[in-house]
Specification:
Helices cover 94% and strands 0% of the residues. It is mainly α.
Length: 134
């Protein structure tokens, strides 16, 4: 290995002109990129954020609509249950009234049949008594 003492010191030395040129080139590159790239990229990012926000807003609105529809559905189901219970109560009352009417009619008819049977028995008794007297 051959080391040249002048090469290492030159390589390791800090040159003010190089530092200033590097800073100047970096600033020029930054401004060029800012002008041609950063603004356009930021614009695309902003548009994408707006689209995403609109998607979130639409999703929230759809969720609210779904909740409203669910509430309406539940209300209608509750109302339908109440109506069906009322219909069943009315039908039960009507059936009970009709059953009572049928029972009353049967009792009246049974009384009529019994009365007719008693009258028939009484008449037959009278006929039997008269025929026994003769």
């Amino acid at each position: 290995m051959i080391h040249a003492s002048g090469d290492i010191t030159e390589f390791m030395s800090i040159d003010l002109t190089t530092i200033i040129a590097t800073l100047l080139n970096t600033l020029i590159l930054f401004f060029v990129l800012k002008h041609f790239l950063f603004d356009k990229v930021n614009k695309v990012i902003d548009e994408r954020q707006k689209e995403i926000q609109q998607s979130y807003d639409r999703a929230e609105e759809a969720e609210k609509n779904a909740q409203q529809l669910e509430a309406d559905y539940n209300a209608k189901i509750g109302q339908a249950k109440e109506e069906s219970a009322e219909i069943i109560r009315d039908a039960t009352k009507k059936a009970q009234v009709r059953a009572d009417e049928i029972i009353d009619e049967a009792r009246v008819e049974a009384r009529g049949i019994r009365t007719n049977a008693e009258n028939e028995i009484e008449r037959e008794k009278k006929i039997a008594v008269i025929s026994m007297k003769d």
